[in-house]
Every structure is written in structure tokens, then in C-alpha cells.
Amino acid sequence: MAAEFPKHPFLLSIPEVEKATGTNVDKGLTSGQVAELQSKYPPNELDVGGSVAWYTIFIRQLCNAMILVLFFAMALSFGVNDYIEGGVLAAVIVLNVTIGFWQEYGAEKKMDALRALSSPSATVLRDGKTIVIPNFEVVPGDIVYLKMGDTVPADLRMFEAMNLQCDESSLTGEAIPVEKRVENDILVPGTDTLATTDEEVGIGDRINIAYATTIVRKGRGRGIVIATGMKTEVGKIAASTSKKNRKPGRSMNWKKYGKAQPVKGAFRRTYDFLGKFLGLTEGTPLQIKLAKLAYLLFFCALLLAVIVFGVNKFVVPNEVVIYAISTGIAIIPESLVAVLTISMVVATTVMRKANVVVRDLSALEALGGVTNICSDKTGTLTQGAMIVKNVWLPPSAVLSVRGSSDPSDPYKGTVHDKTEEVEEKKRDFDQERTTQAIKFDGVPDEKLNPKPERPAKMAELTPALRMFLLSAALCNLATVRYDEAENAWKTTGEPTEIALQVFTHRYDRNKKAMEAMGWKQVAEFPFDSSIKRMSVIYDVPEGNDVGFEAGKSVVFTKGAVERILDLCTHVGAGDNQEPMTQELKDKILDQMTKFASLGQRVLAVAYRPWPAGKYVPESSAPAPAGEDEETSPAQDAARAGVEKDLVLLGLAGIYDPPRRETSPSIFDCSRAGIRVHMLTGDHPETAKAIAKEVGILPSNEGVLSANVASTVVMKATDFDKMTDEEIDALEELPLVIARCAPETKTRMVEALRRRDAFMAMTGDGVNDAPSLSRADVGIAMGSGSDVAKSAAKIVLTDDKFNSIVAAIREGRRMFANIQKFVLHLLSSNVGEVILLIAGLGFQDESGFSVFPISPLEILWINMVTSSFPAFGLGREKASAEVMRKPPHDKRRGVFTNQILVDMLVYGLLMGICTLMTFVIVVYGKYGGNLGHDCNRAYSESCIPVFRARAAVFAELTWLILLSAWEFKDIRRSMFRLNPDDPSRFPLFKDLYNNRFLFWAVLIGLVSVFPTVYIPYLNRDVFKHTSISWEWGVVIGMTILYVFGIEAWKWVKRRFGILEDHKVVQGPWSQGEEGAKKFYKSQGMGAVKNWLSFGRTFSVGSRTESRSKAQSAGPLTPATTMPKNGNGTSTPGPVLPASSQAAAGTTGTTTPTTQEKERSS
């Protein structure tokens, strides 16, 4: 809990905080105060939620809509003493509930194993003594000691900070550790105004506060506990993930909303409760659709029962009730829940092997409908590690590190000299040929016949670079080593120092190597957040390779560029050294800006030969080991005497590199109609640069309209100031939001939802938890916080963004397969209902309707015959086009127009075929003899009916089984499922491709014979008997049914009926396809060359270029655009002709700036 303060503690002085908490910074709390506070405040623990109780999971499964309908049918069966049918329905319910319970309970157990359970401790001052206590015993007012490596136990107002830096990446998303200070003169960000309220400063800028769960990376300090448990900043985030926000209009406050409000509020709350209980208002789109389907079928069953009763003039003996139950059973797909659940189990098993743990079974199918992904940057899109990307050496040398796949491995990637690339400005011929001065025959020769790209020059170890590496290696506290046991590079220290140390390893001039050559440290001036630099002093060894005189001392310094420049009198090393001038200083600052615009943190590195020869440490100077001693004026004077008259050696641009697979994964999302947004706590320029690098933003923002370009990148403060109406009025929502607070991410999720988007949120930090819980699909990283994992529905154990794409692909595959087996199950139900309703006209001598097919035959077909082929359809592989289609419409779900029409067509065809078979057998052979009481028992008079039932049962079984093969593709012919297969008759190969489905159908076809011919089983259970000549009718009708399906598929293909819609194309696409490629443009004057070149242009290259050009999606997919007046999606932003020509959208494929940079 939090103590009471007149205003936020970061705005208060230390005495004011002492007074508010009743503590003393020199003695701490007394034992009496601690006891009182422990009784007043709960333990210092986060309530992140534990495992879901087994009975909660069980009840959740029982309340499934389809299960409730089956319960009703079972109760009715037992009510009319039909114990066999009631027992079968009870078995169906048990099977469905068991499968669903087993999967969801197993997922929760898996999460239990992922939760990191620990009991950290804290060092506190009580009764004037320093003691170590468990974290949960910390109370507001405690004085807490912090040192490097500690986890901060609670929110602290720091009153002592010695070079203290805390890693707050899990809270704010900022990868770089935050330097802490003790003063309360906090400025409003971007201004010179002192903050007066907590609303003016975000948590990331309250640098005199150390937050709970963050980690001390450097230095030491002391602070006063101002908040514990769920009242800490991380606790507030955890609480917001489970906080239930009441929907608008549910208030019961009549004073505020009027006297009628309690009635309206009560009605709406009741509606919400019933909707939630019945599954009609909460859940994924598929869950809601299936719930609605279940109740729709239930009411259809009641309607059919009324029809049955009406035909029998509402004289309702048990026989009529049984017929009504049979009709109701026929319309309900009893195996749908089991098939759906088992298909999801198989999918989750596949995903688990791909490092994706599905906590919520329904989340996987929801992935298929995702239209937007809101992703954190640090550790998700990027590696969460720092690397030296660029180095500038005076006067103009620029080095670049390329191809590094592991920031900790100095031997991954190479260092290239970019100096010539920077100085050489290439002509832009497309820009020169404007529409006013276009020449059809004046294309420069170097445009038509460009010279081959020269390979980048490898950076040599020049004297200037040698000095830079020496200073960067020795003025550094990080360690980089190769672990033989783990076969991996291990690092310790602050991320920026690690990056510099790794860079020195590339030339084998690291700190360990230099000290082995004899360099000996004699003094260290640690990094000070107030002056933003650190320095070390080393004695020069004999035989050094940098030209220093042995026995003398050298000062090495690094730090913020502006701070180092103010101390420099010269620039460069060796022959390149020159005095510092204002012009040179401006040039250096321009170079710093260039690096910063690339998303890099820039550090300056300098040195100074000690003028007195050998440095002799004074008594007040810091010790070489870097011990934290109290500052003093003498010590400050000693430091000032050392850090002056420096020589600048160069600048280092350090950044957090994107994961290698991020850009191709984002491209896959773009091609699939999914828009990726970056929501990060980083600086806007850093976020913008990384977004361009991974492809979230176009390198050339000119392809965007002015309105979109102005809001495509926003700061959280600007976004938060906007009202919901202003956000909704934006043409497009921002693709990048920097300096995000948890509330910003939640508002973004809600803004997307108002645009009818179906979004996924990815993240690993505590700050991601609210949006993870409120997004339609929350995806947490396995290395992330427990709070985030508890709020998410899916956990990625490998933290890779491409695993998200794999999960989406699996979700889409499963969604397509769900459509297939739903069509398979429901079309058979339609056929059965048509058969039974028509059967009402077949009345025996007693006037009762005769079953064309018995109730247990229906249950056998629905539960046994249909189930296994449906399971097989659920195991179908993903089609090649699965990630080239837009997300499915969540309003329609699996029940698209094509599925509904196909269901009616195939069901009608099936019903007609089976009905004709019954008529042919009974009326064609036996003259319409329907016997007496043939629904209950076998007799000689019932032979015609029993033989007809057997024929109908066999035929219906075969039709359902063969339709499973037909539904492998709902548009292509079963006899040529793969249009690219060169085989003349690939039927067997295509069918055998899914072995489970192949054998399920084959065994099902054979299983008809024992059920028809086994004594007792046929007459007493299934109410049919052995047949002979009827097989000819069965086979003939089966062939007719297959012909009918093929004919309908041909009509759909021939006339383009019910085709899937395509991803809306636009001038650019996010991400980058596969490997980095360079696409050359062609001018209008190169038509002759193009014609001759086209004859030899390979098919593969042609396809590749066309794919790249066509994959350029709009800024936002149509499914996420604001709705116009008639409810349809408004089109994406349209570029003017001039912009399109500049963007290369006039029939040619022009390389973007990003592609040119990457191909160089």
C-alpha cells in the first residue's frame, strides 16, 4: 500500500517525504512502527493471479451452448423411457466435456511450470540497524539499501544515489538503464518548466523514483519506501489487467442519470449476465457464432417437433415424441464440439513444438481473424541488446557493422568502411526526368547499363581506429567472454559498455587483451549521471603499438557527446589531429544527429596524455577498483583536473538491433492483410528509425498522404491528449507511438476496436499487461514478467516475432479446416432433416409416421461416421494461399456465404438421394407396404421398411464419408486438388496426403457391412435388416451425389460464384520479403531493352517481382478502416498521380530508399 502524501513523492523534498511516512533516514523505522504498519497495510506482494481452479474449468465446459442443448435432448429421451438413446446422448456429453476439460486444464498446468516462483529479499534499516528481510515484509517508510544486481522491492523515493542506474525495460520498455538522482527539481519533458503535478511527468521521467521489480544495473543508493504491493506502479498495472470495467449504461445511480436508470441498468445487467452464461455476448467470434448456431438449431428442433406433432394432429403418444426427438437429434451436430476441441488440441500440440503455448483454447482460432498487431519494440521486434552499429573517426571516416546476428558475439558480422559511400552522391535519374522535361530517348547510358555495385570496403585497423579501440576497451567496466561449456558468448555489465567491449573484440583489442599487454589502471572516475561521463587513467606499457612513451600515464574518457565536446581542445589522432573549432564542433554535432536519426544512442570517446608524465593518485582520488566513496569538493577538483584538454577520438552509434526474422514476418502480416503497430517506451526518433528498419513505416514517407504522414508517428503525450472523437476522426491510427504509458496502449486497443478491428497485443513487460488482457488476443513472451503471462492467452517461449506469424498461420489453417468440417457436419444434418421431415408422409396402418432412418442410426452417423472424417479434415495442411488472404470477417465467422450456400446445396442433394432410395425400395419393390409399429420392433410386416432403412443408412454413411474427401477443397475438384500437379490422375496421391482422413473414410466405408449384417445389432438396435439387391441403388445414388458435388464446384469456378475476397492493394507494404533484394527500375525510353530482356527473363524472377509489386498493401487493411454511412469500409488513402509515379506504382518496381541502403 502507499503512504499518504500532499502530492506525489517525486515532487517532494526528502524532509517532506520523511514527515509523510514517519521515518528517519538515519535510523529507519522502529519495531513498533513496523508492527503497526504491517497491521495497517497488506503484505508487499503482487496479486498476478494463480492457476484457475479445476472446478471453474469444469463448469465452464458444462455451460457450453451445444452441451446445454444436448442436456435438454438427453432429459427428454429419459423422460419418454428411451434409455438407449438417452444413454448415448449422456456418453456424447461426457466425451465433449472431458476433451475440453482435459485440454484447458493441461494448458493451465503448463503455465504453472512457466511461472517463476521466487522469494527475493531486501536490505532495510530498522532501529538503526541494517537487516535483511523477505520482500513481503517491507512496509511504507522503510529505508531500503540498493546495490548492483538487486531487485527493487518496492517503489522508493531515492535520497542517496551513487552512480545508480536501474533497468526499467520491463516497466517502461526503455532498453537503456535509467540514471537515478535525488533532487526533486523535475522538469516537464520538452520544456524548462518545473513540474508541479504528477500528470505532467510520465513514470519513465520521474528519475528520483526507483520502481518495484526493476533491477539495479550499476552503483548503489538508499531510498524511502513510498508504496508497496498493488499500490506500486507495477502493482497498478497488474490490477488494471483484472479490473472489470462496467459497460456504459449499466449504472444504477438514479440521482445522476434519472429515475428510470435503475430499471434500465438492471435490465442491461441481466442481459449481460444471460448473454455471458449462454455464450452469446462474450468470447471469440467462433465461440459466439457456434453458441448462436446451437440455440438456432435448438429452436429449429423445437419447430420440427411442433411439425411432427401437427402432422399427428397433436395426439402425442411416446412414438410421436420419439420421432420428434429423432428429428431434433438429426439437426444437432452432436460431434461438433468434440471435433472442434480435438482439432484445437492437435493445433496446440503443433504450436507447442513451435514454441507457442496456448493458455486459452479459443485463442488459436481467434488468430485467424486478427487484423492488427500492437507490438512492443524492446525484446519483441528487437533483440533487447545493444550493439555498436556505426563509428565515426575524424576527420570523416565512417565504419559500419553489418551482418551481426548476435550482439554478444564479436565474430558475427563484419566492419565495413562506409567513407566512400558517404562522400559519393549518386545521381537520381528518376528524379531528374520530371514530367515537364521527360525524354523518351534521352535516358543516360549509366541508367540503362549501370555499373556493377562495388563491394563494401573492409575497415582496416588504422592508427585512428587503434586509438579509438584502446580508449573504448579500457574506459569500460563490462566483460565479454566465451563460455566453452555452453558454447556461447556471455556478457556482464551495462548494455552500452557491453556493446563497446564487443566492438573492441572484433579487432582483438578488448580490455583483457590490452591489460595482458601491460596496460595498468591507476585510477577511475566512475560514470556520474550529473556530468554524463566516466574516465580512467592507465600507465603506458613498454612496446605499446599506439606510440605512447612507456612509463607515462594516459586518460581515457567516454560519455555524452555534448559533455565530452565541451572538454576537448583537439580532434583526431596522429597525423589527423587538428584543433577544435566551432565549425568542426558543428560538423561533429551534425554527425551525432545523423546517427541519432538512425535510432542510435551516440557516445563520444576521447583521451589525453597526462601532462606531468606519470599520474600519481591523490588521497582524495577514487580507487582503481571503482569503490563507491562519498563525493567531496576535493574529489570533484581532482576529477576536473583530469577531465580537461581532451582529444576527441570519435563517435560510436549504439542501437538495439531488430531481430533478423522481424521484417520478413511483418511482410507476411502485410500480405495477409494484417497491420503491425509499434507501441514502445523508447524515444520517438529511435522508435521511428527502428520502425523504418523493420518495415513498419515506409522509408520514403512521401508515399503517404499529408494527413496520414502527420499522424503515422505520435508521442504518447500527444495521443493521450486527444479525445476518443478526435482519435476516431483520424484518417489512420498511428503505426508508431513512442514514450508509451500503459494507458496509452489500452487506448490504442480500444481505438482499434471502435474501428471494428480484431487485434492482437504482443509484449513481455509489466507495462504490456493491461493491453494484453484487453486485446482480443494477448501474446506474451516466455521470458517476460509473470504479470504479462498471466494476462495473455498465448505465450511464446522463444520470444520471436516470427512465432507470432506461425501462430497466425496455424490459426488460419485451423479456421479454414473448421469451415470444412462444419460444412461436412451440417450438410449431413440438413440431409437428415429433409429425409425425416419428408418421412412424415410415410404413415403405417396405425397412422403413425415411419422412420426412413432410426434415431440410433442418426446418432451413429453423427457421432461415429461423421466424427472421424471431420477430425481428419481438421488435420488438413495449410494451403499455399492461407497467408495471402485477408483476415476473415468476424461478423460472419465460419458461416460465410459460400459455406451457407454449399451446406444447403449439398444437404438438399443428400436428402433427395436418400429419400429416393427409400421410395425405390419400399414403393418400387414392395408396393408401399409400411407394416405395423415398425418404429419399435421388427416383424414380418416390417421387412420392406427395415430393408429400406438399411439401404438409406448405408447410402447416407457413404455420402457423408465421400463428402469429406470432396471438402478437402471446397472449390476445386476432388480429382485434381492441386492444379500444379503434372500427374494425369493424381486422385490417390492427393487423398493419401492426409493419411488420417484417408483411412477414416476407407474404414468408414467398410464399417457399413457389419452394422447391416450382424444379427441382433441390425434389427434390435439400429432397426434395419440385411439387404442384397438394394446395394445397386446405394451405389447408383452415391455416384449421382458425387457427380452433383463436382457439378456445383464447376459452376462456382466457371462463373466465379462466392469467391474469397482479396487483400486490398496499395502503394507500399510493411516489412520485407525474405532475403534482401534490389529491384531495378526501368524508364520509358528502355522499352526496346525491356522487350528483348523479357524473352530471357526467368519465370521465377518474373513471379518474384510480381509478388513484390502486388504485395504492397494499403496503409490499413479494409477490415480496420472507419465505416462510412452505409456500413461499408472506406477505401485506403489514394495517392495523386505524381506521388504514385514517384513511388514507382505506374507499372514498374522501383527500389525504396530502404532497399537501396540494404543492398549496398
From TrEMBL:
Pfam families in alphabetical order: Cation_ATPase, Cation_ATPase_C, Cation_ATPase_N, E1-E2_ATPase, Hydrolase_3
EC primary class: translocase
Biased amino acid composition, Low complexity: 1136-1153
Region span, Disordered: 401-430, 617-639, 1102-1160
Compositional bias annotation for Basic and acidic residues: 414-430
Keywords: ATP-binding, Cell membrane, Ion transport, Magnesium, Membrane, Metal-binding, Nucleotide-binding, Potassium, Potassium transport, Sodium, Sodium transport, Translocase, Transmembrane, Transmembrane helix, Transport
Its EC number(s): 7.2.2.3
Membrane topology summary: Multi-pass membrane protein
Record domain Cation-transporting P-type ATPase N-terminal: where: 8-82
Catalytic activity: Na(+)(in) + ATP + H2O = Na(+)(out) + ADP + phosphate + H(+); K(+)(in) + ATP + H2O = K(+)(out) + ADP + phosphate + H(+)
Biased composition (Polar residues): 1117-1131
Protein location: Cell membrane
Transmembrane spans: 62-80, 86-105, 293-315, 321-346, 821-842, 848-873, 894-926, 946-967, 996-1016, 1028-1048
Cofactor: Mg(2+)
Keyword Cytoplasm attributed: no
Gene3D superfamilies in the record: Calcium-transporting ATPase, cytoplasmic domain N (3.40.1110.10), Calcium-transporting ATPase, cytoplasmic transduction domain A (2.70.150.10), Calcium-transporting ATPase, transmembrane domain (1.20.1110.10), HAD superfamily/HAD-like (3.40.50.1000)
Family: Belongs to the cation transport ATPase (P-type) (TC 3.A.3) family. Type IID subfamily.
Official protein name in the record: P-type Na(+) transporter
Species for this entry: Remersonia thermophila
